[in-house]
Amino acid sequence: MYNFTYHRASGLRQAANLLAKFEDAKLLAGGQTLLPTMKQRLASPSDIIDLNKIDGMAGIELKGRNLVIGAMARHADVAASPVVQQAIPALAALAHMIGDPAVRHRGTLGGSIANNDPNADYPAACLGLAATIITTKRKIVADEFFKGLFETALASDEIITKVSFPVPKKAAYQKFRNPASRFALVGVFVAKRPSEVRVAVTGAGASGVFRVGEFEAALKRRFSPKSLEGLTIPADGLAGDIHGSAEYRAHLVGVLARRAVAAAG
Q1: Positive or negative CA dihedral for 226, 230, 236, 239?
Q2: Architecture of domain 5-50 in CATH?
Q3: Looking at beta carbons, which pairs linking 1-5 to residues 24 or more positions away fall under 8 Å?
Q4: Helices (H), ranges, 97-141
Q5: What's the half-sphere exposure (Cβ side, CA atoms, 13 Å) at 6?
Q6: Which of the two ends of the chain, N or C, has the fewest CB atoms closer than 10 A to its terminal CB?
Q7: Rounded mean pLDDT, 5-33
Q8: What's the pLDDT at 265?
Q9: Helix (H/G/I), strand (E/B), else coil: 166
Q10: Distance between CA atoms of 130 and 139, rounded to whole angstroms?
Q11: Quick one: which of 132, 57, 67 has its CA closest to 95?
Q12: Cβ-proximal residues to 81 (8 Å cutoff; 6+ apart), any chain
């Protein structure tokens, strides 16, 4: 690691001020991405701002028809929460699929979506459930939040505080995981909402998480796996690497989407 200055923020205002003050500062939540990249000397922030001692950022509660989860909620807490399991069981199941127990007990919701790894699970949940990301400055709908590989709509001095997930009528997440990292080679989140059906895909896009409009239109007419039979997505624009070609990922999207609809139904 390179040298850096460590700051333990006691409140959100202090954290935001520190983030604005230092040009190369980084926030520390669970550290599951930041610390490994620093160890590999792929990142060299001048200052680390630790959010772990800030009160009130890890709560989970149901507010009307919205499940509101604090940005510092650990994956394990989301997976084990009776509130999440009752309101959106698909979200609890997704959290349980993330990494291994060590990762789930340290990694956070806010850290995952702020990093926007193209193989992460939470971006698919946010996009599939039409979530709203709440920050120290504003509210950002998921369709406008994820901009590309490791890129979001967050300003340089903006901090995610919580995420609001509208409770769907039905939802499910299916994932084909890398056996070593447990990241999604492809993951598909399907949600049936009062006015629409959303299908969000992670792991496959060369530009990160995305929605599949053709699948959504077919499922809106009839929410059944049979509605997706014969439908495919083009391999153009999908990721290809040593773990799977773009064509293979395109095939997996169709398979996992049908499984997700079956599981939701």
Answers
A1: positive
A2: 2-Layer Sandwich (3.30)
A3: 1/38, 1/39, 1/41, 2/38, 2/41, 2/44, 4/38, 4/44, 4/45, 4/46, 4/47, 4/48, 5/46, 5/47, 5/48
A4: 101-104, 109-115, 122-128
A5: 7
A6: N
A7: 94
A8: 85
A9: strand
A10: 13
A11: 67
A12: 60, 92
CATH of 60-264, one of 3.40.190.10, 3.40.50.1370, 1.20.1070.10, 3.30.465.10: 3.30.465.10
CB 225 within 8 A of CB 144: no
Asked if residue 141 lies in contact with residue 148, where contact means CB atoms within 8 angstroms, the answer is no
> CA dist 83 to 4, 89, 229, 243, Å?
39, 9, 34, 36
Q: Is 0.90 surpassed by the pTM of this model?
A: yes
Residue 151, sorted as left (phi over 0), alpha (psi -120 to 50) or beta, turns out to be: beta
Consecutive H or E run containing 154: none
- 3-state DSSP: the chain helix, strand, coil percent, rounded to 5? 35, 25, 40
Measured distance CA(41)–CA(154) in Å, rounded = 24
pLDDT tens figures, 150-190:
999 999 999 999 999 999 999 999 999 988 888 999 999 99
Helix intervals (H) in the chain: 12-21, 34-39, 75-80, 82-87, 89-96, 101-104, 109-115, 122-128, 142-145, 213-221, 246-264
Question: What value, to the nearest 5°, has the Cα angle with vertex 262 and ends 199 and 258?
Answer: 50
Residue spans of the domains in the chain: they are 5-50, 60-264
Question: Residue 116 in 3-state DSSP?
Answer: coil
